[in-house]
Amino acid sequence: MGVQLPMPTVFSHALLGYAAAQAATARRAPPRDLALAAALLPVLPDADVLFMRWIPYEHPFGHRGCSHSLFFAAVVGALGALLVRPARETLGGRRWAAALFLFAVVASHGVLDALTDGGLGIEFFFPFDATRYFLPWAPIPVAPLNPGWFFSGRMFTDRDFWRELLLLWPVAAAPIAWRRLPGWGGRLAAGLCAALGVAAWAWACSERWGG
């Protein structure tokens, strides 16, 4: 299975960011650069795995350390807002609104990782506090850090991957379907995705509380 790190797959982080960009629009699809930034920037915190050979996991700069912090999300959000076009129909055309939005989608990475079921917690409050935190509930299983698992097709036979997909992807698919599919077909698809997402989280809650 390769090295186990407590994180959802990069696909989920990217899809949820892209979905957030769709949900943030008033009347039209978001500008392409904003949608692209919203999909790519939530994946950026996991770049810290490239340095695991030299920086221990538990180090403040290790995996799930500073790059998963709210401070990092704020810096990336501010820089990202300088590069995207928040059109009038998206975030009111304001750069500060784009910065807040991108901060939120980058910070979502740490929040999702804090919902996983293993490893060290998230260093949310770097550089002021090196404590690592988990959320009280961890319904999302770990994903292997192994390119072969991602691209060989093995992930599609992994029950944990399907659990992640069921919990996260319908939630993301709902605003995408609403925005991208025309007319009542899009609304119906969005409603079905939302219903599936609610059912998946209700099922996870029933496991948590023994219902």
Question: How does the SSE layout of this entry go?
Answer:
Blueprint: E1 3-5, H1 10-23, H2 32-40, H3 70-81, H4 95-113, E2 143-145, H5 147-151, H6 159-180, H7 183-208
Antiparallel strand pairs: 1-2
Helix pairs in contact: 1-2, 1-4, 1-6, 3-4, 6-7
Radius of gyration from the alpha-carbon trace, in angstroms? 18 Å
Quaternary structure type: single chain
The secondary-structure element order is EHHHHEHHH
Helix-residue proportion: 40-55%
Order of strands across the main sheet: 1-2
Number of strands: 2
* Mean pLDDT over all positions: 85
Q: Low-confidence spans: pLDDT under 50, at least 5 residues?
A: 1-7
User: Treating each run of at least 4 consecutive H or I residues as one helix, how many helices?
Assistant: 7
Shape assignment: globular
* Beta-strand proportion: under 5%
Q: What's the main sheet like?
A: 2 strands, antiparallel
Give the domain tally.
1
State the secondary-structure class.
mainly alpha
Straight-line N-to-C gap: 32 Å
Task: Report what the structure shows.
The protein has 211 residues and is an all-alpha fold. The chain has one domain (3-208). It contains 7 helices and 2 strands; from the N terminus they run βααααβααα. The chain has a two-stranded antiparallel sheet. Helix 1 runs antiparallel to helix 4 (95-113), helix 1 (10-23) runs parallel beside helix 6 and helix 3 packs antiparallel against helix 4. The longest helix is centred in the C-terminal third of the chain and has 26 residues, at 183-208. The protein starts with a strand and ends with a helix.
